Amino acid sequence: MDMDKSQPWQKEEIVRHSQLLMYSFKYWTQRDLILASSQQLSPLEIALSLFSADFVVVSHGTQADPVLNYGNQKALDLWQMDWSSFTSTPSRHTAEPVERHEREQLLTQAKSQGYISDYRGIRISSTGDRFYINQAIIWNVIDEDGKRWGQAATFSNWEYIESGL
Fold first, then answer.
1. Are 58 and 50 in contact (CB under 8 A)?
2. CB 3.0–4.6 Å: which of 6, 11, 69, 113 could bond 1 by disulfide?
3. For 66-81, how does the pLDDT look when each residue is reduced to its tens digit (9 = 90+)?
4. Full-model pTM
């Protein structure tokens, strides 16, 4: 299998992006996204740890209609997509149309505050499975110079919603 598809965390731009996710999460929340600093991990080891974490991490860019640019393995599994499909999806498509207005307001709030925590909302997978995300943290992805690269979210708590059919 193509390394870029099976192990995207090894790509140089994803290793750099993982560093941005780690730095900006710590900047806004004063907490570590993963405990890499205490373990003296290399950038590649950090990228692998983040990609294989037992919680979801996703991010999108700064486009007018932001496109997802990162999803760890938990995110790919939850949204039922491969790396290529996930990273070519407008992030608004992770929510149902009726949920998109609330999602947009939330992202605007996070953009102005730097981050928000304890978010709960409904999301939808590529196959139509619906699920609540609980206790999500959404933050602005920035670099050491304060340049904004997008927004990210993490959560470890979700529950599927019965379809009622």
1. no
2. 6
3. 999 999 999 999 999 9
4. 0.89
